[in-house]
Design brief:
The chain is an alpha/beta fold and about 280 residues long. The protein has 11 helices and 11 strands. The strands form 2 sheets. An 8-stranded parallel β-barrel has the order 1-2-6-7-8-9-10-11, surrounded by 6 helices. Strands 4-5 form a two-stranded antiparallel sheet. The protein is globular and about 80 Å long.
C-alpha cells in the first residue's frame, strides 16, 4: 500500500515538473485572420497582405467567393454593404466590376482583388495561404472543379491549404484532388466528425481537449479561431491545437514565444488550474 502511494505521488510530482517546465506546451501554427493584424489594413486586400506578411505568419487566412461570371474574388462578407457601402452581393457583379470597387476599413482603403492577383502577391512575398472557399446560392459544383483545375497544382506546390464551411465542397475537393490539404470548418463542437478532411477549423467557444485528443488519434489537425487574447492563447497551447487563427498576430506570436522559450511557472499553473476547472464543468 505504502509503495503504491509512493509511486502515485512520484508520478504526480513528475507530471507537474514536466508541465511546469513547459515541456507539454506546444507552439502552434499562427495564422493571420483575413490577412490583417490589429487593423493594419482592409481585410482581404493586397496592401494588408503585403504589410502582414512582413510579420511572418505561418499562414494568411483569406476568403474567396464566386462572381457573376464565376470567377473568384477575395471577399468575406455576403454583401459589399459594410466595406463599400454597396447593397450588392459579390455574385451579382462580374470580376471586372468588383475589381473597380474601393473598400474601406480601420482608416485604410484598397481595391477589391481577384484571387489571381492576391495569389500572385502572396507568391511574390513568399507567404503561404489558408484559403477559405465561401459558398452562396450562386456557387455550384462546377466552381469547385474550376477551382481545382485552375489553382490546385500551384496551391500544392507552394504548400497552401484550403478550408470551408461547406461539407459538400470539402468532400468534392478531396475527391477531385486527394493530395490537397482541406480543413472542414465547424462552428460548434457537437460531435467528432469522421470525414475525408485533413483537419478541422473550430470556433474557440466550444473547442475542448477531448476534441483535440480525438483529432490527434485520428491524425487530423485542429485550427482554433479567433484567438485574440493571451489567456485564450495559453489555453489553446496547453490543449495542443495545431494552429490558431488570430486578428492580433504580433501579440499572439509574442505570447507563443514567451510560453515556449521562458514559461512562467505561475502562469502555467494558472492555465493548468483553469483547464481542470473547465473539464470539471463539462
Amino acid at each position: 500500500m505504502a509503495i503504491g502511494i509512493l509511486l502515485a505521488t512520484s508520478l504526480l510530482v513528475a507530471v507537474n515538473l514536466v508541465y511546469l517546465n513547459g515541456l507539454v506546451i506546444t507552439k502552434p501554427i499562427i495564422i493571420s485572420h483575413r490577412g490583417v493584424d490589429d487593423g493594419n489594413g482592409v481585410q482581404n486586400t493586397i496592401p494588408a497582405l503585403i504589410k502582414t506578411s512582413k510579420e511572418h505568419p505561418d499562414y494568411v487566412e483569406m476568403d474567396i467567393q464566386v462572381t457573376k461570371d464565376h470567377q473568384f474574388v477575395v471577399m468575406h462578407d455576403p454583401t459589399l454593404k459594410a466595406l463599400a457601402g454597396i447593397n450588392k452581393k459579390p455574385s451579382q457583379l462580374t470580376l471586372k466590376q468588383l475589381e473597380k470597387i474601393t473598400v474601406r476599413e480601420n482608416g485604410h482603403q484598397a481595391k477589391i482583388p481577384s484571387f489571381d492577383a492576391y495569389l500572385k502577391a502572396a507568391r511574390q512575398h513568399h507567404q503561404k495561404l489558408l484559403v477559405e472557399i465561401k459558398t452562396s446560392s450562386a456557387y455550384t459544383s462546377a466552381d469547385t472543379k474550376r477551382f481545382i483545375n485552375r489553382y490546385g497544382a500551384t496551391l500544392l506546390a507552394h504548400h497552401d491549404q484550403v478550408h470551408t464551411l461547406s461539407y459538400k465542397v470539402m468532400r468534392d475537393l478531396k475527391r477531385l484532388d486527394s493530395q490537397q490539404f482541406v480543413s472542414y470548418i465547424l462552428p460548434y463542437n457537437l460531435t467528432f466528425p469522421h470525414t475525408d478532411a485533413n483537419g478541422y477549423t473550430m470556433e474557440v467557444t466550444t473547442l475542448n481537449d477531448q476534441f483535440v485528443d480525438k483529432a490527434d488519434r485520428n491524425h487530423k489537425t485542429v485550427y482554433a479561431w479567433d484567438i485574440d487574447d493571451t489567456d485564450q492563447m495559453d489555453r489553446m497551447m496547453f490543449m495542443g491545437v495545431t494552429g490558431i487563427i488570430t486578428d492580433n498576430l504580433k501579440e499572439m506570436q509574442q505570447e507563443a514565444k514567451s510560453n515556449t522559450d521562458h514559461p512562467s511557472y505561475a502562469k502555467l499553473l494558472l492555465t493548468f488550474m483553469n483547464e481542470l476547472s473547465l473539464t470539471s464543468n463539462e
